[in-house]
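FAQ

Q: What does a record look like?
A: Structure on top, sequence underneath. For example:
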């Protein structure tokens, strides 16, 4: 009933005498739509109310509208817009308070001045009467009256000047605040654009990487020849590193944050360097480089450290050394510096005889997106992130990267890391599920990418699972409605309706079938968000086969 009445106001023509009523009506309709969770409609009406209240200079209504817009955007989890309108509300509210306080101050001053003037008049009257009674005091009283009036005048002038100075200062502060706000908004937009770019790149790389890792896993399971197994193992190593690179490197805003967790697990540094040396042999031979590994046998076999971050450091440095060196030599060296109590300090060096780095560039080479020169970027390529990441990771591990380089002679990167001594452990790897649970289970795979369809189907069939494929959410809904499945593997990004909406619609008529999301999680996705649509679990692309099977087994066992 309120909506029907309020709508009669908002259709009136935009005349000056209708602005205030029409703006209030739009504001009330916006509140009703927000209460009914029709957030987009609420934003539409409230925005129109904001425009009319601005034209009408109705600042009290404008403040209320800004506060309501902030609340609606907060419900929509749009924190930036919510924060923007909340600030606007506070700014308008404070301005109104300031104006009111100034009005009250002026009225008080006028009242004070009038009272003083009345006192002066009364005083003069009394002086006249006293003059009649005693003429000898009249001259003295007149002088005192003139002095009092002069003091009040000077006081009034002083207050007036102070008010002018205060007003000018406020205007300057407001101008500075506006400049700061503009700069802040530009910085936030730049940061958001950067985060979105990194998220898009990360997301787009995960999709083909899922195919690479999946096909590699399938080929290894098919008992390849010994010569092929070596290549497949190297491919798997590279795929695993690339996945780590995407997760921990491309999302550079997380790498640069203070919230990175450092693992403390047993690591065999000698074996790690040996594996890396073997992985880079082909790249070294392409540039006709000698590739030398010198490991101090005194390095303990078991140290406590973070193998993933150590691998990232060495891979970046070795890759750079081999890339910028031709017909030369690249050396990897590791040696114990000292061992005190249970702490062993190991010195690492990656040296090359490549193009070297100029003295001018050595101070900036560790900055993000920095390279030796435009010519080097054109010839050798690269993102300019590698050394920035190396410096950050070495610092996180408690070391400091050092560089010695001369153009045309080569470069040596070195750093020391302190490791706690570890203990030899024997871990029997056990599968966390019984493979018999897979046999003859019927699974619907909702995936639009043909390569991912092939890989997922083959991995399921290897476990004797009956697999049915569909490439869009609409058909998936109808298949689940008319058929019996034990589980659904649902890709999030689908043509037509996406996987989250398809899952919501399935949950209307089937609340028990397990649904596992398959997604290359992007900037706007997270596990909690996907589970809120009715999904039971999430497997991130490119998925680890053991984790993939474990999640499926857990869901099948819960039926």
């Amino acid at each position: 009933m309120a909506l029907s009445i309020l709508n009669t106001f908002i259709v009136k023509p935009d005349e000056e005498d209708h602005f205030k009523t029409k703006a209030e009506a739009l504001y009330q309709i916006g509140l009703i739509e927000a209460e009914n969770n029709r957030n987009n409609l609420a934003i539409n009406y409230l925005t129109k109310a904001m425009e009319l209240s601005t034209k009408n200079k109705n600042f009290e209504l404008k403040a209320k509208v800004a506060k309501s817009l902030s609340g609606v955007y907060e419900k929509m989890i749009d924190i930036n817009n919510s924060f923007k309108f909340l600030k606007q509300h506070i700014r308008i509210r404070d301005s109104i308070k300031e104006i009111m306080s100034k009005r009250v101050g002026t009225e008080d001053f006028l009242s004070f001045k009038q009272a003083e003037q009345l006192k002066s008049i009364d005083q003069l009257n009394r002086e006249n009467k006293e003059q009649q009674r005693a003429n000898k005091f009249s001259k003295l009283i007149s002088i005192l009256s003139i002095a009092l009036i002069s003091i009040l005048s000077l006081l009034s002038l002083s207050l007036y000047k102070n008010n002018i100075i205060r007003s000018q200062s406020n205007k300057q502060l407001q101008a500075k605040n506006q400049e700061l706000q503009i700069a802040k908004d530009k910085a936030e937009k730049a940061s958001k654009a950067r985060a979105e770019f990194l998220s898009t790149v990360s997301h787009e790389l995960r999709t083909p990487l899922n195919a690479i890792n999946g096909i590699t896993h399938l080929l290894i399971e098919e008992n390849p020849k010994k010569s092929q197994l070596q290549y497949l193992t190297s491919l798997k190593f590279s795929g695993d590193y690339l996945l780590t690179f995407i997760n921990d490197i491309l999302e550079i805003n997380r790498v640069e944050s203070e919230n990175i967790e450092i693992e403390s697990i047993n690591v065999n540094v000698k074996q790690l360097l040996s594996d890396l040396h073997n992985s880079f042999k082909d790249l070294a031979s392409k540039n006709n480089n000698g590739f030398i590994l010198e490991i101090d046998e005194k390095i303990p076999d078991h140290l406590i450290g973070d193998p993933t971050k150590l691998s990232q450091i060495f891979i970046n440095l070795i890759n750079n050394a081999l890339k910028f060196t031709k017909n030369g030599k690249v050396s990897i060296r590791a040696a114990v510096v000292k061992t005190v109590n249970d702490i062993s300090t190991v010195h690492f060096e990656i040296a090359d005889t490549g193009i070297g780095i100029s003295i001018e560039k050595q101070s900036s080479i560790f900055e993000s997106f920095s390279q030796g020169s435009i010519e080097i970027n054109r010839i050798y390529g690269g993102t300019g992130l590698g050394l920035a990441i190396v410096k950050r990771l070495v610092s996180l591990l408690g070391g400091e990267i050092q560089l010695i380089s001369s153009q045309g002679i080569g470069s040596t990167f070195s750093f020391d890391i302190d490791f706690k001594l570890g203990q030899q452990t024997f871990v029997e790897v056990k599968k966390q599920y019984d493979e018999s649970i897979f046999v003859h289970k019927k699974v619907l795979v909702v995936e639009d990418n043909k390569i991912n369809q092939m890989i997922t189907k083959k991995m399921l069939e290897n476990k004797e699972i009956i697999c049915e494929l569909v490439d869009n959410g609409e058909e998936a809904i109808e298949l689940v409605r008319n058929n019996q499945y034990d589980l659904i593997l649902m890709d999030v990004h689908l043509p037509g309706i996406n996987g989250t909406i398809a899952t919501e619609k399935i949950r209307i008529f089937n609340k028990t079938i397990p649904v596992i999301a398959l997604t290359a999680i992007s900037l706007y996705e997270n596990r909690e968000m996907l589970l809120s649509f009715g999904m039971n679990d999430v497997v991130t692309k490119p998925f680890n086969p053991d984790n993939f099977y474990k999640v499926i087994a857990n869901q099948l066992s819960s039926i």
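Q: Is there anything notable about this one?
A: The two ends are 49 Å apart (CA to CA).
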